[in-house]
Amino acid sequence: MRMICLSVQFLAQYKGVRPLSLAGHVGFDSLPDQLVNKSICQGFCFNILCIGETGIGKSTLMDTLFNTNFENFESSHFEPQVKLRAQTYDLHESNVRLRLTVVNTVGFGDQMNKQESYQPVVDYIDRQFESFLQEELKIKRSLHNYHDSRVHACLYFISPSGHSLKSLDLVTMKKLDSKVNIIPVIAKADTISKSELHKFKIKIMSELVSNGVQIYQFPLDDETVAKVNTAMNGHLPFAVVGSTEEVSVGNKMVKARQYPWGVVQVENESHCDFVKLREMLICINMEDLREQTHTHHYELYRRCKLEEMGFQDTDPECKPVSLQQTYEAKRQEFLVELQKREDEMRQMFVQRVKLKESELKEDERELQSRFEQLKRLHADEKSALEEKKRLLDEDQSSFGKRRAAAQLLQAQSLTANGKKDKDRKNLNSNFFTDW
Ligand SMILES: Nc1nc2c(ncn2[C@@H]2O[C@H](COP(=O)(O)OP(=O)(O)O)[C@@H](O)[C@H]2O)c(=O)[nH]1
Ligand SMILES: [Mg+2]
Question: Which InterPro entries is this protein grouped with (predicted)?
Answer without folding.
Answer: G_SEPTIN_dom, P-loop_NTPase, Septin
